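Ticket #4471: structure export looks truncated?
Reporter: QA, pipeline team
Priority: medium

Steps to reproduce: submit the single chain below to the structure queue and open the exported record.
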Amino acid sequence: MSIEKSSGERGFWGNLGRLTRHRLIVPLQRGQMPPEFVARGVAVGLAVAFTPTVGIQLILVLAIWGLAKWLGPRFHFHMVAAMAWVWVTNLFTIGPIYYVFLLTGQLMLGRFDELGSVGLDSFTERLTAVVSADVGFLEGLWVGTLALFDIWGLPLFLGSLPWAIGTAWIGYVWSARFITRFREARRKRWENRAARRAVKQQKKKQSEVAGNRVSPPQT
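Actual output as written to the record:
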């Protein structure tokens, strides 16, 4: 029984890892847009993901994209990357992330006596209870978000701000470096392959020339 459970857990985490790589990393490895352009998209996606707005996050990304287009080229960002990184807030992470927002907001407001007054389990259960209503998934998450605002509105929203700003900055710096290093490594691989092919072709030509010199003339 324990062996089956262990293998099942490995399968779950393996599938989650592959899904995460497909959703978050692969979009950074594709395309030839400037690294800073893609990194700005990652920053926008994380900034929106780390706000208690699940259910309208894609709409927010589109609104920010339209605003950036209006402001000028220096504010443009990769919308696909932004929408991909919004996925950081998902069914598995929304409970813990929102709970951290709440604790952070209580600290920022000086409400130290309220820290831990609501446990993570009860917080997540309340959110899950609202989400499990007979509505669509994203609609249910948004209804749950509104319900949480009614109960913990100010600390929840205020506590999300430092996380949104911090993760956006970290995401921008990390993704810009990751894309630059990935493309440099890919360029070197292509150059090495081209060099090996050139060496093989050169050796082939040399062997053909040597064979022609050794071969006796035809009579």
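Status: closed, not a bug. The export was complete when the record was re-opened. Leaving a note from the reviewer for reference: The chain has a mean pLDDT of 80.
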